[in-house]
């Protein structure tokens, strides 16, 4: 008869177990494992124990494969969503720069948050470089992909806001220290958890 417990499978996989079913065809060897009622097995019989171990191993492999595939799909989806979001953020900053400069083809100055507070390349002239430690408040190490994605998008938003401030000429009228304090305050507002 049908066994909804999958031969007493102990791992709690409620959703997965409701979504799958299986049939096992045995041509010989389980007669001695059958109980008197012929509708259940003597669970202590070696053949029944072997069959149960095999079924539980197959269920573990199935669950592991499904979890791995689901993780890959989530990661890919999260990456494409992040890419679209960053593109939208950059598009907005470029549009504002084009409107304010009168040259729609020009690009806003780059914004970098570096460990040293210095430019990576001396040839880049239109770059605002800020020390990462004075603007981005460090949080504990982001362990999940979702937290890393959120931190990356947050940094891109701050860069875009900096470019918009530069578009209106508001950044250049401030001293370096005030620029850093302003950006730190904006970052702290953006970083406030809304969950």
Task: Describe the structure in your own words.
Strands 1-2 form a two-stranded parallel ribbon. The protein has helices at 14-19, 46-101, 132-135, 145-167, 176-190; strands at residues 110-114, 127-131. It has two domains: 14-67, no CATH class; 108-190, no CATH class. Helix 2 packs parallel to helix 4 and helix 4 packs across helix 5. The two termini are 48 Å apart. It has 195 residues and is mainly alpha-helical.
In short:
It contains 5 helices and 2 strands; from the N terminus they run H-H-E-E-H-H-H.
Keywords:
195 residues; mainly alpha; 5 helices; 2 strands
Work out the count of structural domains: 2
Q: Note the run of SSEs as H and E.
A: HHEEHHH
Instruction: Record the strand order, biggest sheet.
Output: 1-2
Please tell me the overall pLDDT. Answer: 83
Q: How many strand elements? A: 2
Radius of gyration: 30 Å
- In percent, how much strand structure appears in the residues? 5-15%
Measured distance between first and last alpha carbons = 48 Å
* Tally of helical segments: 5
Helical coverage, percent range: 40-55%
The computed structural class is mainly alpha
Largest beta sheet, briefly? Answer: 2 strands, parallel
Name the shape in a single word.
rod-shaped
Q: Residue ranges: pLDDT <50 for 5 or more in a row?
A: none
Topology summary:
Blueprint: H1 14-19, H2 46-101, E1 110-114, E2 127-131, H3 132-135, H4 145-167, H5 176-190
Parallel strand pairs: 1-2
């Amino acid at each position: 008869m049908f066994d909804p417990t999958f031969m007493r499978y102990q791992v709690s996989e409620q959703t997965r177990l409701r979504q799958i079913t299986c049939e096992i065809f045995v041509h010989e060897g389980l007669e001695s494992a059958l109980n008197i009622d012929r509708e259940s097995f003597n669970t202590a019989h070696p053949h029944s124990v072997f069959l149960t171990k095999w079924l539980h191993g197959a269920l573990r492999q199935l669950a592991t494969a499904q979890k791995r595939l689901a993780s890959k799909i989530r990661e890919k989806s999260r990456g494409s969503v992040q890419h679209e979001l960053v593109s939208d953020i950059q598009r907005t900053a470029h549009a504002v720069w084009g409107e304010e400069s009168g040259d729609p083809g020009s690009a806003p100055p780059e914004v970098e948050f570096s460990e040293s507070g210095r430019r990576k390349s001396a040839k880049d002239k239109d770059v605002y470089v800020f020390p990462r430690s004075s603007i981005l408040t460090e949080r504990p190490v982001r362990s999940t992909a979702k937290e890393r994605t959120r931190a990356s998008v947050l940094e891109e938003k701050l860069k875009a806001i900096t470019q918009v401030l530069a578009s209106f000429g508001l950044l250049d009228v401030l001293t370096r220290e005030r620029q850093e304090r302003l950006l730190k305050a904006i970052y702290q507002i953006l970083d406030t958890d809304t969950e």
